[in-house]
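Here is one such tokenized protein:
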Amino acid sequence: MKGPREEIVYVPCIYRNTEIRKPDYLATIDVNPNSLSYCKVIHRLPMPNVNDELHHSGWNACSSCFGDASKKRNRLILPSLISSRVYVIDVGTDARAPRLHKTVEPVDMFWKCGLANPHTSHCLGTGQIMISTLGDPLGNGKGGFVLLDGETFEVVGNWELPGESAPFGYDFWYQPRHNVMISTEWGAPKRLANGFNPADVKAGGHHGHYGQRIHVWDWTTHKHMQTLDLGEEGAIPLEKGDWAAEKVIKVPNKKVEGWILPEMPSLITDILISLDDRFLYFSNWLHGDIRQYDITDRRNPRLVGQGKRIPGSPQMLQLSLDGKRLYVTTSLYSAWDKQFYPEMIKQGSVMLQIDVDTVKGGLTLNENFLVDFGQEPDGPVLAHEVRYPGGDCTSDIWL
């Protein structure tokens, strides 16, 4: 938390499902208020292909490699949700102007792992990189995990044991200190590819459309240990499960606790906890707001801050290391953006910055900060996740 203030951030920008047939790209944005290019995109790295649907990114090394001087956080891993490619980006040579280091083609993932549609990437203490997947090469649901070599970035194989993949895949978080990994479910890629159909959710996981479960894995043996079913009332875990999978395992005092959000007429699409474990934030994509909870008393969270509705809707969140600045982007997934917020397809998404009261709690929009992706040179684009060079609040596994 005492690290240097962020000066640039990386944001994947997506053209799939817009009217512009251009490759997705990685944008580098200046967030230093003392810079002449503040709030500007200072570099764009286009991918070699179209319709990739860049989504979540991860690092080749993180705090799980602590103490290994040979490891450097110099490669950003960019899985493509639809094309099943994985791009490895060199951010170490020139952090302000990243370059493409390697492309892992879909065929390697198909043939070596029987998996497709990579979603979330995390580095491991072994030096390998682990990526969750949504499906198999035919577009059916299949929650497995691909391992990449951390030096060559070649596909090594599956993390899960043969025959133990989950029915659906999505997000995951591991914690060796508790010998546990938790993963969540989204849906079958062939159902997600072209948009959202409520009938698919109503059909439930037993019909091969959308998932409704959280999975618990033994981290040492890779064995699937337990399934938590959220019921067939149209529940899709998404970051509901992500709260349990990704954030709560990190609670202090070595406690292992998990919460499931109460049912709400909304879609909670991102959740994070500040590095001091005091505040929890989530974005409420259908309601169009952001909420801040004081979780000092673990069993009695208090709502202490709430952001107002914005054009489009708040989606991905990233908090500064000191907890004072919350960055927000508005694109969820291009096919769903097109359905729920069609004006965002035409106007592009935005990136906002919210000032956080770290004493009493509270959120205030920084009116001097706006990155308007509707003004991009090749036309309006959809901006998704935010990453800082050197690491951030949502990418590190703390051992």
Summary: Confidence is low (pLDDT under 50) at residues 239-254, 259-265. Residues 8-383 form a domain with the Methylamine Dehydrogenase; Chain H fold (CATH 2.130.10.10). The longest strand covers residues 41-50. Helices lie at 106-113, 189-192, 198-203, 238-247, 334-340, 342-347.
